[in-house]
Design goal:
Length: 188
């Protein structure tokens, strides 16, 4: 059953600002929008954030790899946000030349909504002509992004969801006590 999460418009704008800052968005950026609008990433990350930072978006006709390719190569997208399943389909279904050509036009690819294994992360960067893959962690309840890797390939860490991006984050034990960096506990 779908969950209902009441968010104020101001919360959505705060989330969009956080995304734009973490991704260093500018008027030169054009997001590829291929997610359903009920998805927080579709509304905040792919609609509000690009527009808030003076950029634009191209809406793909569908989420199949051929539509994503068209949105990049013909629609001029400079970044795209995909869930790992969509990324896997692109890796499996698009010819190598198409992936390489897409990568030459993309500033980064953002992976959201689920964990992405390091081998798939590295395979995607290689397949898309060394385009940085940016993993994030977020929740609808927080109006999206909580942590993010930077879009720079030199600064991001495969296998992690990055650093706090617009939110305070700590790791805590079962009693709520803060733990040191690297400890195992709950993300708060």
């Amino acid at each position: 059953m779908p969950k209902r999460v009441p968010l104020r418009f101001e919360q959505c704008l705060h989330g969009a600002r956080s995304v734009g800052v973490a991704l260093d968005l500018s008027p030169k950026d054009r997001a590829l929008h291929a997610l359903p609008m009920f998805h927080i990433g579709a509304l905040v990350d792919l609609f509000f954030a690009p527009l808030m930072f003076g950029g634009s978006l191209v809406i793909a006709e569908g989420k199949e790899p051929s539509f994503l390719r068209e949105a990049v190569l013909e629609g001029g997208a400079t970044w795209m946000q995909l869930v790992p399943t969509m990324l896997a389909r692109c890796l499996d279904d698009l010819p190598a030349d198409d992936r390489r050509n897409m990568g030459q036009r993309l500033r980064f690819i953002r992976s959201a909504s689920s964990d992405l294994a390091v081998p798939q992360h590295l395979r995607a960067e290689d397949a898309f002509d060394e385009t940085p893959l940016v993993q994030i962690y977020g929740m609808t309840e927080t109006s999206g992004q909580i942590t993010s890797n930077p879009p720079s390939i030199a600064k991001r860490r495969p296998g992690t969801v990055g650093m706090p991006a617009g939110a305070e984050v700590s790791i805590r034990d079962a009693c709520g006590a803060a733990l040191d960096y690297g400890a195992v506990g709950e993300v708060c």
